[in-house]
Amino acid sequence: METLVLKIGGSTLESLPQAFYKHVHELTRTNNVIIVHGGGPAINDALEKNAIEATFHQGLRVTTPEVLQTCEMVLSGQTNKYLVTKLQEQHVAAFGLSGIDGELLQAKLADQTGALGLVGDIAHVNKQMITMLLANNYVPVISPISMTKEKQKLNVNADSAAAAIAKAMQAKLVFVTNIKGVMSKQKEIIPFLSKKAIEVAITDGTISGGMIPKVKAALSCIESGVQESIILDSESLIGLATHTACGTSIRLEEASYV
Prior knowledge:
The structure is a single chain. Helix 3 crosses helix 4 and helix 6 packs parallel to helix 8. It is globular and about 45 Å long. With 258 residues, the protein is of the alpha/beta class. The chain has a single domain, classed as 3-Layer(aba) Sandwich (Carbamate kinase), CATH 3.40.1160. The chain has nine helices and 14 strands. The longest helix is centred in the N-terminal third of the chain and has 25 residues.
């Protein structure tokens, strides 16, 4: 069985249709499925509600202990359990956990100067724990909050966590977004993109706006050792179950978008 890591961003998560959860159920018939999620908009709302000031360093959010506590509450609590519940409604054996549980994700400080605060990068993935859950037909639903060797909790970017898990599990990484894939200037889905093709497409304006960070995140995952990243929307997800071409595949080998 092929292993798929589905990465769901916070903004996408809020608008997922009921069909998405049915598609995940279909995928589990022929694939091992792992879900990694973010929760940015909900975190922003919680910080504002609790009057916790958000500060930034070089465009990145600084994670203070107060911010980390809010991130953990939203990601590992509210968002994680929402996803687990929605999946279980479609008879998916979802198992919600964070990177802290069972020492699933061991992290290290991303910035040793301390300028970013409690922000981490994944150093090690507990493959045995994920394998155990998959072997018992569970779908792990993972919040990226992680912990160091010294048991310090850290806030980890969901894209980075998903990439580390996909690399460790030798899995295909699927970015579930609100678009069907990267579109050409003729408004057709580009089936394959390499690093070189992405650079050209950004330069000539084919890839622009909010698609740029999505493509760069997928590309960085490939460069970290993930064999393939796919960008698609929730409706196209069913194509993975039926082996129908869907979304845009990001690969290392040369591929033209023309």
